[in-house]
Amino acid sequence: MVLSAIPLEFALLLCFLLGSLTASFLNLAIYRLAWNSRATSPWSKPPQELPPRTVVDRIPILGWLRLRRESHHWGKAFWVRPLLIELCFGLGMATLYWYEVDADGLFGSRVLQDTIPVGPWWTPLSTRLAFGLFCGHYLLFSLMLVATFIDIDEKTIPDTITLPGTLMGLLLVTLNPWLLPPETNCQLAVGKEAYTDFMHVAAPLPWSDIFSSKPTWGALALGLGCFWIWCFALLPRCWYTRYGSRRAARYFVAKLLRTRFSALILAVAAFGTLGILAVWYCGGFHWAGLLSSLFGVAFGTVIIWSVRLIGGATLRKEAMGFGDVTLMAMIGSFIGWQATLIVFFLAPLAGLVVGLLQWILKRDNVVPYGPFLCFATAVLLIFWPSFWGYLGPFFLALGGSLPLVLLACLAMMAVLLMLLQWVKAVLFKLP
Q: pLDDT (tens digit, 9 = 90+) per residue, 182-234?
């Protein structure tokens, strides 16, 4: 752990420089992975009518000031946004390091469960945990930043971001389950230090037998089911009943078999299943972490998919892009299903305000939802102890009735959307 061994000032400076350099490549990804790919980044080969870019042009932040010479080709002030992205991401990662590693913002004095051994050079023990959490959040924020700005530009979120991001989340949480948000209400005393558990599947309830870190057949079935739900959601699906259900089924299967992306997803499903079986067989906290991450993936997929289906059926148009479904699955792989549920209810608050302002100022009611999911996730992770300290008792009180409460909320949403459609049609004469 190199950063923990140097003075805080130098560590923060290093985080800023590393964050700015990372954001330079994130800007490249924003332009390269978009549907309308552009060679705007200094790391791309410029169009023939522009002069070649130099090494100095690739210096984070400062390089964009030199690229102002290309404004006649890309548009006035095109360089402002990527410059601010690199500056803000560098400052943000330095602040995040200070908050999570130096100040123990997510753990405080409650550090870790007693299943992780204490090595002679991991002192204090909280530094190891907090540094691992910082690295996981660094990656998650990087992925969300790319998804956010592509969604703002094109109102789409490419699978090339969310699919690998979800797999990386599953892998990293399996290797280190303490990348999941800490369950600050669950403490164990070990020696002179207090330890906290990560957000396992049943939290804040105690581990049940089926969710135990011991390898049980029921837990394996649940884990595989969660992973297969996500894989099925990624498959290209078309169901046209215009000429009958039999022809629709034939066309559905034919499209699955003839699409190259289907072969990729089936390969991911096969190798992922083998990996889940291997981790399940080993058991321990690695399996507990993977199971929590898998539940986060499935929950994020199902909850946003349900909103998409209900919104499309009531509004008779696409209410939410499928990229939001895969984005929520990726977020769930890093934070688990409990935090994903909080993000689900937190994101519409910002989305409603921005959507109303956009409709009032521009009469445009199409708002990309991905940025609000990412913003809500960032806010939740930074202020996690406060959120969980307030909402944890509600999870504990609801217990097994939580699925019924969610179904009731989805039903209420359908009723409200139908009422909104009636108000628009009858009172405002809008389609």
A: 886 555 444 444 445 788 888 888 777 777 667 788 899 999 999 999 999 99
Q: What is the pLDDT of residues 6-58, one digit of tens each?
A: 788 888 999 999 999 999 999 999 999 998 899 999 999 988 888 899 999 99
Q: Which amino acid is at 328?
A: M
Contacts within 8 Å (CB) and 24+ apart, 48-55: 49/73
Vertex 375, ends 59 and 19: CA angle to 5°? 20
Element (H, E) at 129: helix 125-154
Q: What is the pTM of this model?
A: 0.89
Backbone angles phi, psi at 220, to 5 degrees: -60, -45
Buried/exposed 352-368: b ≥16 CB within 10 Å, e otherwise: eeebeeeeeeeeeeebb
- Domain ranges in the chain? 104-426
25-to-58, 60, 166 alpha-carbon distances in Å: 10, 9, 20
Q: Which residues contact 131 (CB under 8 A, 6 or more apart)?
A: 1, 3, 4, 101
